[in-house]
Amino acid sequence: MNEFLNLLQQMSIFLIIAYLFSKSPAFKALAGEVLHFKHRVLLYCIFTGFAIFGIYIGLPAYDAFADSSPIGIVLAGLVGGPLLGLWVGATAGCYSLYLSGWSELGVISLVLAVLQGGMGGIVCNYYQQRGKSEQLFNPLVAMSVTCAGVGLHLALVLLLAGEDIVAIAVPSPLVLPTLLANSLGAGLFMLMMRDQKRMIDRVGVFFSARALRIAERSLGIFGRGFNVETAKELARIIYDETGVGAVGISDRERVLAFVGQGADHHLEGLAIASPQTRQAIDENRVIYADGVREKFQCALSDNCPLASALIVPLRVDNEVVGTIKLYEPQDRLFMNLNRTLGEGIAQLLSEQLLRYRYENQKTLLTKAELKLIQAQVNPHFLFNALNTIIAVVRSDSDQARNLLLHLSNYFRKNLKRSSDLATLEEELDHVNSYLVIQRARFGDKLVVDLDIDPDLLQAKVPTFTLQPIVENAVKHGISNMIGGGTVKISAHRNGKKMVVTIEDNAGFYCEKLSSDGLGMNIVDKRIKSYYGQPYGTEIECVPDTMTRVTLSFPLEKVVQP
Amino acid sequence: MIRTLIVDDERHAREELEVLLLELGDIEIVGTCANAMEAVKAINHERPELIFLDIKMPVIDGFTLLGMIEEEIMPYVVFVTAFDEYALKAFDEKTLDYLLKPVDPQRLAQTMKKVHGALDNNEKPALPQAQINRIPCTSVNHIKLVDPQDVEYVHSDISGVHVFTAEGNYFSELTLKVLEGRAGLLRCHKQYLINPAKVDEIIPLENGMAEIKTIAGARLPVSRRCLQQVKAAFGLK
Fold this sequence. Notes:
The structure holds two protein chains of two kinds.
Chain A: H1 2-23, H2 25-31, H3 37-57, H4 69-80, H5 82-99, H6 104-129, H7 139-169, H8 172-218, H9 228-242, E1 246-251, E2 255-260, H10 275-283, E3 287-289, E4 306-316, E5 319-329, H11 336-375, H12 379-395, H13 397-415, E6 421-423, H14 424-442, E7 446-452, E8 460-462, H15 467-477, E9 485-494, E10 497-504, H16 510-515, H17 520-531, E11 536-542, E12 546-554, H18 555-558
Parallel strand pairs in A: 7-9
Antiparallel strand pairs in A: 1-2, 1-5, 3-4, 4-5, 6-8, 9-10, 10-12, 11-12
Chain B: E1 2-7, H1 11-24, E2 27-33, H2 36-46, E3 50-54, H3 62-66, E4 76-81, H4 85-91, E5 97-100, H5 105-120, E6 135-138, E7 143-146, E8 151-157, E9 160-165, E10 168-172, H6 176-182, E11 186-189, E12 192-194, E13 199-204, E14 210-214, E15 219-222, H7 224-233
Parallel strand pairs in B: 1-2, 1-3, 3-4, 4-5
Antiparallel strand pairs in B: 6-7, 6-10, 8-9, 8-12, 9-10, 11-12, 13-14, 14-15
């Protein structure tokens, strides 16, 4: 009965130690998968202390052999690997040797302690190599290994020291309790550690989930631009998800959005007042006022409840475009976690802004390029056309009137291309007006040859796909030929494609085509962006002989059945 | 009467300008040309005092054309263009005036006043000194631009100027004088220009004359007058 109470007593002490240990920062070292040297040293100290303590709380009457040191030693090997196990074992063993007054018994103790540490380590290796490190925190494993360790202990004593010593050291009635006490103790210790580790993991999972949720909810918001509307939306999400006292978003000059406590005086649209925000912007760094050592000073109101703040600059290409601010009121501490989260969010949003800017520039560029093509409705053409018409008026006023109508049709179509798609017929009408005028200018020098499949006239094509190419053929091709030439325009079906070709027999601008000053790229880009990579423009050029531009479209998409 | 040539690749543009000029009077239109080759020929033959010159023309533009005209017969030049003021700026001092298409008759009248003024003051037309980097040539209904570096020699006879290259010979409207000064060719005879890079041998003859053998094996006469100059070009005394 006495032994049983002793056993209980021992176990309670173990549990208290285990509990304290699991609450201590030292335990964090175990929560990670990989142990750094620093962590190993820490664990070495703890487990050695633990093992030595076990020597003292062992059953007092029976010396070193019935003590509880194996728990610390085996566990050290188990959680920290063979090296840690051996070191803890050696240290604790030496200590017992010292306690036993350098006796024979003490030497055995030392050897045993080292062996026990090694055993823990081998099991640790075993599981790690099989990728089952979570088994190391299984209490049953700890129990069995410790049991084996103590069993080895007893077996060795039998082998090495002869029966008399064993009889003195470990009286048979005590074998069982010793075994039980150590195994159970180790098992319970491990159980507690496992629970604690799981809790930490769960907290980690919880916060990761929160961070991911913020990321998910905020994704794409800045893809619509960095303005009051998107800032408001984001501030609301961050406020909801982090649960901080208040969230503010500013650009470089003013507050774009503010949600939470103090929203009555942190008004949207106000110029940035707080010196800390200014500092974050000017110095391009994170400013953290923890509310204890450094207080957040609201520059707007003395009654502002906010006392701590994290101010993270939003950067695009390392240039500060604004800030995100997380605040906590006077009565709450700024959680470290929210600090990490806040910086992470800012990082994420910065990436989004960069992307937005990039996309924005890209579309702006395409638009500008399209505008450029339209603007290339060049004055040269206009004034030459007018010059021709003025001359024609003298001889043939009907023809002059006709030309003027075509000229106005041409310009109207150029100026009023708001829609993105037009029928092939509309495009050809536009082209026709252009060609009628050019034929009047160049006379016999310009021959136009049209070959259009009438079924394709209603096909929808992006606007301004034919026009620039026909203009190129005339401007850079035929008009540079001394004797004049022919422009051939054809549209026909080719398998699953609609193919439109524009060909001249000048072959003058092969070089210009490859360097593209002719708006050919944008035609290609537009067709590809509508219909995908397999379609677009294709250019063949034989110098001094011909230039042929082929436009291909997916037949089923451009022709509505 | 001012002898005037109109050069423009558009028929209507030529006609309109002709009508406007004739309305102003005191003008004789000696020709209208549709491209630079025709223009060089007409200028060499007709020796106009004034040309109205379109800038944008096929193969050889108005600016380049001016570089192909001999100094002595250089007429006054009025550029007529739809939209090339920026290009004209660079050419400003070298031209008498420029007109924008469509041509405003009143503006044309001002231009003619300027022309009369220049004629009365006996001003010399400005001469654009441009290197010719392509020699326009014709061969059977076809226009060929010959790189002066590819030229072996140039010969002029009663039928005109012939440009000889490794690929063949072509007919050119440009005079020897122009080619000598602006295409880097060397005069070796009244009727011959040689490309110094294509000379293989200079063979002295008895009476102070010489003969040049080209790399391709052609033999050209070197006149007494030109021998010094030819020798100097090769650093010989």
